[in-house]
Specification:
This protein is an alpha+beta fold and about 260 residues long. About 40% of the residues lie in helices and about 20% in strands. It is built from nine helices and eight strands. The strands form two sheets. The chain has a six-stranded antiparallel beta sheet. A two-stranded antiparallel ribbon has the order 3-4. InterPro entries: Beta-lactam/transpept-like, PCN-bd_Tpept.
Length: about 260
């Protein structure tokens, strides 16, 4: 029994080491832009892998990646009860994105990244509760002075709450390892809505974010599989860049390392 257990542990350690090396190589291959960056953290060992560390440490607006935390805080404050209940009642205002022009449950609002739905959520949470929770989890620079329902969206003067890819990945690692003050219900609901893609032996959970005029793209989340778990944050810059571009790079990094095989 001891020999068998030792063999299993050795196998896991070998897998983690080789997987980590492949991830580092793939990150370097994918992150080529001067300002682009990616951070991957092994949730079991806390090992950090960083591509373009100078920019991974620079803070910017989180844009829609903040919906991860807005969701959790909304559940903790009793504003959200499940992923399937009516979450957003459309106000009949026609918006540019047609998929926002309807009533939605939480899962639908999260996946379509419905800004008015989450602005409504932030108003219900309120300034005091939002401030309290951002301080408790130490989110970025914790500055919501731009307004309770807009602080995660950069305005025309470049103001917003600020957080770096390194901070995003570290916060996600704490969330996955249950080091943050969120209850089991909150974690369960978030995981339901955050599921991005099922693979053959793993699944990716994440949220995209796209900057003003499509000049920045975020993808933040984690991947879980048999014997491994990693948190990640990727931020790209350029013309016509969106969160989908960052998502594609993250998926390619894990896929090339053999950690994610699409169904």
């Amino acid at each position: 029994m001891k020999i068998k257990t030792a063999a299993i542990i050795a196998s896991i350690l070998f897998f983690s080491c080789s997987g980590g090396n492949k991830l580092k190589e793939n990150m370097s291959a994918q992150i080529k832009g001067e300002k682009d960056s990616m951070v991957i953290i092994n949730n079991d060992t806390s090992e950090e892998m960083v591509a373009n560390g100078d920019y991974a440490s620079k803070a910017s607006s989180p844009y829609s990646t903040f919906k991860i935390w807005n969701t959790l805080i909304g559940i903790e404050c009793g504003v959200i009860d499940s992923s399937s209940d009516l979450f957003y009642k459309w106000d009949s205002v026609e918006r540019q994105r047609a998929e926002w022009n309807r009533d939605m449950n939480l899962s639908e609002a999260f996946k379509t990244s419905c800004v008015p739905a989450y602005q409504n959520l932030a108003r219900h949470i309120g300034k005091d509760n939002m401030n309290m929770w951002l301080s408790r989890i130490n989110y970025g620079n914790k500055d919501i002075s731009m307004g309770t329902d807009i602080f995660w969206l950069e305005d025309e003067n470049g103001r917003s709450i600020m957080i770096s890819p390194l901070e995003q990945a570290r916060l996600m690692e704490k969330l996955v390892n249950k080091k943050l003050p969120f209850g089991e219900k909150s974690m369960k609901i978030l995981k339901e809505v955050m599921l991005s893609k099922h693979g053959k032996a793993s699944a990716i959970y994440g949220k995209t974010g796209t900057g003003r005029d499509n000049t920045m793209g975020w993808y933040v989340g984690y991947i879980e599989g048999k014997g491994f778990s990693y948190s990640f944050a990727c931020r790209l810059y350029g013309e016509k860049i969106s969160g989908k571009d960052a998502q594609a790079k993250v998926e390619e990094v894990f896929s090339s390392a053999g950690l994610f095989q699409p169904l």
